Amino acid sequence: MNSNVQIKQIAVYHPEKILDNEYYYEHYKKQGKDVKKLFEDVYGRDKRYVINENAEKKENTLTMQIEAAKRVLKKACLQGEDIDMIVSASQIPEHVVPACAVIIHREIEGKMDSICYDFNANCISMVLALENVYRYMDNNPKVNRVLLVGGEYTTQVHNPMNEYGYGLFGDAACAIILEKTDRKCGLADCDFFINDKYYDKMIFPHCGMSKIYESTKEAILSTMEPVSCDLDEVERKLKGILRRSNLEVQDVKMFCFSQYLIRNIQTLKEDLGIKDEQCIYVGDEYGYTGVSSPFLVLDRAVEKGIVKRGDYVAFWTIGAGMQHICMLIQY
């Protein structure tokens, strides 16, 4: 399947504040923990951008998404009135009501006859939303341009006593504009799988929404435990997508993988025969940013001129639950 919908433009926003590993080494040292090997060899972390909690005007998921949206419109030489649909993808939205997409619509001065909605499938939200948007645009003649924004304030939800969450993440947002075109491009294939035996290994709010008003901050913060990432199944799904598209690994210009753990990426590269230049790693700069994670790779690849029009790009990302999505597009 090719939807003749192109990613017209992409833009990223991140906070200015940077925390390096040394900050977290000292933090956990006070708890009697040595996390250096975990952070460097498993996570692949060095630095990460984080929201400054002490700033006079504190940022959040929504403010980052709005800034990313404004940046991508400027890069595309478009106005809010040029957008037919706005999708906000996040697992930690600043508001549940109204939809954050409606607030983004207001901030970019969108037109009245447009569609706005929020999308949550945990860390796979933005990739899955992109797949949904491709299919929706292919079937709705009224929707010619879509603004898809993904991002979240991930560092706020993790317990500072838990080294499996606190320090793993960074804060960022990414926005893309999708546009109908006459050339061959868009969604080529997509596949999914769920392993729900890990459904309780990351929960936020941990106490549940019904108890949030009566709970302490510690009871609300996310729990996070190490889990298997089912990489054998990921490899099978990626091979299937390439086989159905009559492609080989070397035909894919960029593999935009979840930046969750560098160890996962190293395993997939080795097992599938992916070259270094086909799989950029940015998790040492951004940390793990949740929904926007694979798109930070795409942004960097486009910025460096590695990915050009007509190139094939593959995605894989993983979300709590556990949810997986593998997708192939033609850029």
Question: Which characteristics define this entry?
Answer:
331 residues, alpha/beta, Peroxisomal Thiolase, Chain A, domain 1, 5-stranded mixed β-sheet, 4-stranded mixed β-sheet, 10 helices, globular, Thiolase-like
Question: How does this model look, in words?
Answer:
With 331 residues, the chain is α/β, with parallel strands linked by helices. It has 2 domains: 5-182, Thiolase/Chalcone synthase (Peroxisomal Thiolase, Chain A, domain 1); 187-330, Thiolase/Chalcone synthase (Peroxisomal Thiolase, Chain A, domain 1). It has 10 helices and 13 strands. The chain has helices at residues 21-29, 36-43, 61-75, 100-107, 125-139, 217-220, 231-244, 262-272, 283-286, 293-303; strands at 5-13, 18-20, 47-49, 85-89, 115-119, 145-152, 172-180, 186-194, 202-203, 223-224, 252-257, 312-319, 323-330. The protein has a 5-stranded mixed beta sheet, with helices on both faces. Strands 8-13-12-11 form a 4-stranded mixed beta sheet, sandwiched between helices. Helix 3 (61-75) crosses helix 4 and helix 7 crosses helix 8 (262-272). The longest helix is centred in the N-terminal third of the chain and has 15 residues, at 61-75. The radius of gyration is 19 Å and the shape is globular. Keywords: Acyltransferase, Transferase. It holds the Pfam family ACP_syn_III_C. One of its GO terms (molecular function) is 3-oxoacyl-[acyl-carrier-protein] synthase activity. InterPro entries: ACP_syn_III_C (IPR013747), ACP_syn_III_N (IPR013751), Thiolase-like (IPR016039). One of its GO terms (biological process) is fatty acid biosynthetic process.
